[in-house]
Amino acid sequence: MDDGIILIDKPAGMTSFGVVARIRRVLSKKQGKKVKVGHTGTLDPFATGLMILVIGCECKNAGTYSKLDKVYEATICLGQTSTTGDIEGEISIYSDKVPTLAEVKKAVRKFTGQINQYPPIYSAIKIDGQRAYKLARQGKQIDMPKRQVTIYSLEIIDYKYPDLVIRTRVSSGTYIRSLAEDIGKALGTGAYCSQLRRLQISQWSVANAQKLSDFGIID
User: Fold this and answer.
1) Residue 62, number of CB atoms within 10 A of its CB
2) Is residue 62 located within the same domain as residue 112?
3) Are 189 and 81 contained in the same domain?
4) Residues 22 and 97 in one domain
5) Which of 9, 44, 86, 182 is catalytic?
6) From the CB of residue 100, how many other CB atoms can be counted at a distance below 10 Å?
7) pTM score over 0.70
8) d(CA 202, CA 44)
9) What is the pLDDT of residue 125?
């Protein structure tokens, strides 16, 4: 492939840049020349699911893909919080309150439509020219700018305390880790995102994506 896109089902435990580097290495070796490869929006290392990689001249259109709506399935762990909003942070017990399903449904309904959201401090957003996560790791105080995002739909798939499983379609720029934390605040339980999978980007589905093993990549 000289130009175009590749759909990849990212495994857990790998950065988005790691996926790009591995695919670039394979394609460059196959074509006998360096192939330009980029991604169109990061997935956190703990997350899995759909990534659209752009190849060759298509790299110039990466920004167009990154602005598309996305569908995620997430498991939210209630009763605990995380310094990063996910399983990679320091986990702390927050509350032993066990919300009823009716209470969970009521809380979740608050987060559909246009909402204001604070991105996680451990994110790739730039603050004064530096990535927020780098500043956070240095222990610096960060004032994250609030942003308006759109939650088009938010469905409860399963609820067995402490795990709440949701499926949601969101606008570009929405952080599911922040959504999980906000739901925990609304319930008074605290919460973090323990599992996250991107199912869809606009019309592209993870069901049609290739795995890294399809490219002979085993790590």
Assistant:
1) 16
2) no
3) yes
4) no
5) 44
6) 10
7) yes
8) 19
9) 60
